[in-house]
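I keep forgetting this: the sequence line spells out the residues, with the fold written below as integer tokens. I include a record here:
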Amino acid sequence: HCREKREQVSMGNLNRNSVAHNQRTLLSNLREFFRDEAFCADAKMLRQQAAASVPTAVPDAEAQAALLAWADALFSSISKLVLDFEAYPVQVVTSRGERLCLVPNLYSRNDGDASLGLRGWNLETGELRTSVELTRGMMEVGARNPVHRSWSIARISAKRLKAANEDAQSPIRRSHASMAGACFAALFLAETGVNLSQMLALKWSSTLAASLQDASVVRQKFRELKFRAGRKEVAFTVSLGFMPKLKKYLALREYLMQDADCDSLFISVGHYAQFRRVRSLNTQFLDLLYSRLDRLGVVLPKVTARQWRAAKQDWAVSNHSPVVAAKLMGHSLETAL
């Protein structure tokens, strides 16, 4: 009983303080019934927490819109880059008109022109800088032997561009594809309102692709996807407009997987020398995504996984009946009310 309730609380299906209160009452009644104060003394009972009694605040609408716009644009642009084997540079444009040019380089843009790794690029257009532009820039910062330095930067930048555009599985492509996967995971959180631990526990199954064709109708604009992963049946509800994104993510996951052994639905790749190593998505993936965006010069207010769930709950209750809201969120009608 304790293990089951602890698992349900960890997945967000039950309130921790309510379970803790009920367990304490149950244990007291059982000890009185058996006349044994040591009954279940080793049971791992949940304890009430003050934080658990405070509902998660719905995040600011602008903070939500900002991440959703960038996540959607990056996921769409990078997926096309790797799945269609398109060439760098890539122009990313959000639905709000914001722009970013992706080049085959991992250096942070926070340092601006101080980053030697990015000096070879015009980050507005994605084009390689000419030797004249580079030499002028080296002279402006007082670099020693500016002609040689500019030649070296131009050579390295051109070499990286050539390598990225000749190898469909190049490290930079896999790194950007991994970021696109994290962007989709953020979109999935916002779309489904699923608990973070539930999302990360989702397993890959060959029946998932088939379920996209046979999704059951929850309401006219929503589809419930059901598939088996291992021995468990998994179900979640998405809007019709989200279905193409889910199909594209499955293709992106296949691109990253190659012959790797990982059964998690949401995955990422390692850093630097480990770009070909696939692993399950990290529990801190949202923080890592915000950090990655920051290095690209995109600074956004943070929205936590719990806040995304609160936002979805607020939207569901505001736009649908309690019955539909409960179905969309995957919890009881009592919770929706």
Remarks:
- The longest strand covers residues 222-229.
- The chain has a mean pLDDT of 83.
- The first helix runs from residue 2 to 10.
- DSSP finds 13 helices and seven strands in the chain.
